[in-house]
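Hi there. Long-time user, first ticket. I'm pasting a complex I've been working with (about 700 residues overall). I'd like to know whether the download I got is complete or cut off, because the file seemed smaller than I expected. Thanks.
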Amino acid sequence: MPALVLLGIFMIYPIIWSLWMSFQVGRGMQFSFGGLTNIIRLTQDPIFIRALTNTLIFLAVQVPIMLVLALLFANALNNPNIWGRGIFRTAIFLPCVTSLVAYSVTFKSMFASDGVINQMLLGLHVISSPIPWLADPFWAKVVVISAITWRWTGYNMIFYLAAMQNIDKSIYEAAKIDGVPAWARFWYITVPMLKPVILFTAVISTIGTLQLFDEPNLLTSGGPSDSTLTLSMYIYNLSFRFMPSFGYAATVSYVIVVLVAILSFLQFLAARDRRA
Amino acid sequence: MTRFSNGMKRSLAVALAGISMFSVTAASAAQITVWCWDPNFNGATMEEAFSRYQAAHPDATIDIQVFDKAAMEQKLQAQLASGTTEGLPDIVLVEDYRAQKYLLSFPGAFEPLTDKIDYSAFAPYKVEVSTVDGQTYSMPFDSGVTGLFYRADKLEEAGYSAADLENITWDQLIEIGKAVKEKTGDTLLPIDPNASDLFRIMMQSAGTWYFDASGNVTIADNPAFKSTIETYQRLLTAGITKPVAGWTEYTGSFTSGDTLATPTGVWMTATIKANPDQSGMWAVAPVPRLGDVETSVNASNLGGSSWYVLSSAPEKDTAIDFLATIWGQDVDFYQKILVNQGALGSLLAARDGEAYQASDEFFGGTPVWQNFSAWLAEIPPVNYGIFTEEADSAVVAQIPAITGGGNVDEIIAQIDAQVRQQTQ
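Hi, the file is complete. Here it is re-exported in full:
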């Protein structure tokens, strides 16, 4: 019973209140009911469209790269013959327990115009002048994507590794005897057996990317020119940087809720179809 | 059981003693709580001001809480929005660009000081930004008067003397930058494509802003705004700038000698002087003006902040008295913070003080403070309004188009549309 009360106060009440908020218009603390005004504003808002596009680009590019990498790492490190696999596993997992601020600062200095990345590329004669990593709209996106990938690949790898340990070894032995090559064993045995886990990681990564805030905020503050602005950052700006517009910020938040619901549903649907 | 109740009694006694002690101190002494950012600049000047006040009011104490600027602004905004006044400080530092936004979106949260402070003693543009409906709310503090800081030694190598940088236009500066690049290979300016500092400097030098005095958008059909965008475009396509990302890279680029100059607020002095080995190599010129806009002058503003008293403050009267007696009239105090923190306040009488007359060896023995205060008096006042952040982000969104050589009229139309959409 106390649990229900707590749940009511800290979960259900804020959800209902934010839904009510999303229909309010006004500045600061003076708001009034605005009906569909916020939703109409949403459709005409170029920054919202930009933030949404950026978020979807991050989602479409980063999540597949990260999950494939995690799967390959997991498969490689699942091989008992690899030397020092404990060290490698830890090394790949460590980023996601690293302090967010510490790693952002490190990335920022690495990708500074006279940072180690540019110096390395210049030294190897890959480029002739330093790339303005964080000052160029395209490269800034690349840096943010690399940062998130670096941080979360190990996290997903752990799920895959755990699931791989549960696959019966005899299946692989049988396949080996039948002369199935390594890539085919991976593609036709490991991947299908991992399907529920892949679905799970895809859903949580999708949700995580749709809520992306920390990396762009610390690395690029959404810039240059809103090229790394995400929906969460836009919500933050609407509430704390711009003229406070809490009602509209709540409306944008509900866009994320709806997107998460739709994308998760589609992913479940896709996973179920393949099984049938 | 006995032990338990003994323990209870003891802790109760301690608690009671604590409460009575607290009420004794509360009755005899007023503690002013202050929120601000930058311990070496704002925190230190506040501390100095209070030590002067305390000499006459030995009972008063102060608690200066220093935050990261963005964190403090978020904390203040969230607290004001929550509607509870508990936990708010007595005095808070507010950046001038945000003042109107706070005053209008949280009416009643700040205490009007119109009758308590003689505002005619302060720079008019500082007073204007904190005035709403005839009531003025701030204790004007640091000025954002701008100057063009440059490496005199390197520019001299290229054949330019201080006189060549006196009262020039941006286009003349571009020519200088090109010549320097040709002769020494050095890049003149660092530019952060995610910052709107340069736009702000250029616009205010012409007495214009994104909004007019009554808050209407004045972006399309504004010759000064158009000239700002065009000038910025010429500057960025002249090959004399270096793109930087964020504050650290920006300040690092000119303190390391990678770039030779930057137009910025007087508060940058402390950062530049933090490299004593560059003493004598630097100089400050007036900020360039827009050549094709008649109203544009060689003086502008960037940033700057003021102290505000919260209406809900428990020590409101002490806080106001403190601000009015020290910050409002103590000329000596302003000399001291100028020397120690490089803080150029906005009390006009302070300009006659000794420290303002002194010359600075770091800047080649020139009377920099006197120059800055002369420029300070020339800054055209503008209305920052309540949507400066929104307008800034609309401009910043178009920077790739501007630097890519896009059509200025189309760019202005885009900015105008976005600002109107965001400020409805």
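A couple of notes from our side: The first strand of chain B starts at residue 31 and ends at 37. Chain B touches chain A through 38 residues (CB under 8 Å).
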